[in-house]
Amino acid sequence: MQEHPNVAAVQAALDAAGARDAAGRPSQVRILTEAAPTAAAAAAQLGVEVGQIANSLVFAADDAPLLVLTSGAHRVDTARVAKEHGIDELRRATPDFVREHSGQVIGGVAPVHPGRPGMRTLVDTALFAFDEVWAAGGIAHAVFPITPAELERLTGGTVTDVA
Fold this sequence. Notes:
This protein is an alpha/beta fold. The protein is 27% helix and 24% strand. It is built from five helices and eight strands, in the order αβαββαβαβββαβ. It has helices at 5-17, 39-46, 78-84, 95-102, 148-155; strands at 30-31, 53-61, 64-71, 90-92, 120-124, 133-136, 142-146, 158-160. Strands 1, 2, 3, 4, 5, 6, 7 and 8 form an eight-stranded mixed beta sheet that branches. Strand 2 and strand 3 (64-71) form a beta hairpin. The protein is globular, with a radius of gyration of 14 Å.
């Protein structure tokens, strides 16, 4: 299987940042045998808890992109996030908005955005309950292991409660 350009870009971003998994090894994108468009699907294939899946959800926050990295074990409370982060209007982004701002499609949005730095990012505190979490690698078949602290460092995200 030829490597997808999004996967190659995510791996390059991980390598450039020196991203590490829980064992201290370089984070490597893994291609799953089946698409994993949901946290439950990804967790089942990886043999991990649903809460260890770091969902990358793009929202329109006052029409600017906001990436929320949330535990797969719960949903984002948009009213809470908006209130706590000074956002007047927070809504789920359309597929076109997601692609425009991330270069990727829903179900495969990676938390690292090669060529698109600066997307405001929130990192769910619930992810810190795990030594290692798994994030999307640019397509629905790709994921990579990383520690929550590394995820925070790579994205420059703000750690916050989102549920």
